Amino acid sequence: MTVLDAGELKELLALGSATAYEASGLPCALPPVFRPAWAGARCVGTALPVAAAPGDNLPLHWALEAARPGDVLVVDAGGSEHGYWGEVLAVSALARGVAGLVIDGGVRDTDRLREIGFPAFSTSVAILGTGKSWPGRVGSPVHLRGHRVARGDLVVADADGIAVLPAAEARRVLDASRARAAKEDQYMAELRAGALTLDLYGFRELGQPEDQS
Q1: pLDDT, tens digit (0-9, with 9 covering 90-100), for 129-168
Q2: Domain ranges of the chain
Q3: What is the homologous superfamily of the domain 6-173 according to CATH?
Q4: pTM here?
Q5: Beta-strand (E) ranges in the chain?
Q6: What CA–CA distance (Å, rounded) separates 181 from 195?
């Protein structure tokens, strides 16, 4: 379970995935192929890793039994373009307090997911059906496109992307994100006053472009 309380999690989500990633200094960003299933989807919570076979969503049903309130299901389905998740599972997930879904695979019923407010992030939207043959693995670490995700890792997902932070780094990253946001607020004020990024960020010393006029 994360060391951050509900208010701190909400604050980190408001700061955003990009700020959390940059402030962390860690290679914690999932590839941009993971996208929100509907505009405005965002979530934060502790990872519950799930491994599923191509075209088989039985492990996701088992995952809902294992999930705790505030969990984000993080599913390695090998990028299979099947509709692993839709309205039925989302309704059950909401009732159990699941905070969201990240899946290397497909989801469906995206309009209904938006209407009921269930945040889902996937590598595809697909209507191809799934079987129920392999119960998979629930709780053991998974690898999503080379990124290891373990039980209890902190997931921050929004329109910009997804950051997955080791649980032990959660508080440090929150503090660093706050500091980064405060510094950016100061920069924004100076930019509105006419300052240049070249000066604020010290880019002049990196060299000038050739004159192409």
Answers
A1: 999 999 999 999 999 999 999 999 999 999 999 999 999 9
A2: 6-173
A3: Ribonuclease E inhibitor RraA/RraA-like (3.50.30.40)
A4: 0.93
A5: 35-36, 43-51, 71-85, 100-107, 120-125, 137-138, 142-144, 147-149, 154-158, 161-165
A6: 18
